[in-house]
Design a protein that fits this description.
With 265 residues, this protein is mostly helical. The chain contains nine helices and five strands. α4 links the parallel β1 and β2. The N and C termini lie far apart (71 Å). The protein binds zinc ion (ZN).
Length: 265
């Protein structure tokens, strides 16, 4: 597919500034093209009959907008153990701490190591996000056998530390994925629901015995959307608040809030 022309959004058609921005951006990208086209990296590539790397593409641009911190929004001190700039950047944006992990060739071992690291930080944090991108990256190769191998490796890795997680009565374990990544077809990511499981003291059980897309679709949690996730976690942590009750001027979804005690003076 060719790169697309730079155009203002429909909603800003009447705004001359939007047209000026798109003209300037186009000019900038043309300048990039001219400079990259003549670069020696590209003459070398063309001699080797490789495609030149001669253009920049802009994607999802926006302006910085301050948001509530994770702690203020959900009342939990958050930590992420992940590899990859996007997670580090997102966590920085919402005020979650980050332990930067690095990927080896063994995703299961990496996952087990991250879970052990998470367990050693449970005193300082109420919510620990442990992430692996390995199945997503594997699916992007469109090789389903590679994706299967990665999932099997993660299964072994999780299995090697599962008892530690299940033995802690204070711990709520949630395993899920943020989206489907199809191993065939043209889509990068797709909209099929992903499985989710929640294990912890007092968490209601259902009849589902296997963690996969088909079995989990029939479970008691039903269809959980992304926006349902944190309220659900607060509920299972016994930290969710009765609607309408407020212990701070802000109507936040959790208790206890950062409350100001009643003074007799
Ligand atoms: Zn992806």
């Amino acid at each position: 597919m060719p790169l697309i022309e730079i155009q203002p959004l429909n909603s800003t058609q009447a705004d001359p500034e939007a047209h000026a921005t798109s003209r300037v951006l186009k000019k900038f990208l043309l300048d990039c093209y001219t400079r990259l086209k003549g670069h020696r990296v590209n003459s070398n590539r063309q001699m080797k009959k490789e495609c030149p790397i001669n253009a920049l593409a802009t994607q999802r641009p926006g302006r910085f907008k301050a948001v509530d911190s994770f702690r203020r929004r959900w009342g939990l001190r958050g930590l992420s153990i992940s590899s990859g700039l996007i997670y580090w950047g997102l966590c920085n944006f919402i005020g979650m701490e980050v332990l930067k992990a690095h990927d080896s060739i063994d995703p299961g071992k990496d996952l087990a190591g991250r879970i052990e690291l998470a367990c050693s930080h449970l005193r300082g944090f109420d919510f620990v996000h442990v992430h692996t991108k390995a199945p997503d990256s594997a699916a992007h190769t469109k090789n389903p056998y590679l994706k299967r191998a990665v999932i099997e490796s993660l299964d072994r890795g999780l299995g090697s530390v599962l008892n530690t997680l299940l033995d802690d009565p204070e711990l709520l374990l949630v395993i899920t994925s943020d989206h489907s990544t199809p191993s065939s077809g043209p889509l990068i990511h797709s909209g099929e629901p992903v499985p989710i499981t929640v294990v912890g003291t007092g968490v209601r059980r259902d009849g589902i015995e296997r963690f996969d897309e088909i079995n989990c679709a029939g479970g008691a949690l039903g269809f959980v959307t992304g926006a349902d996730f944190m309220p659900m976690v607060l509920n299972f942590l016994d930290r969710t608040k009765l609607r309408g009750l407020m212990d701070t001027p802000e109507d936040q979804p959790y208790w206890p809030g950062l409350r100001k005690p009643f003074s007799l003076e």
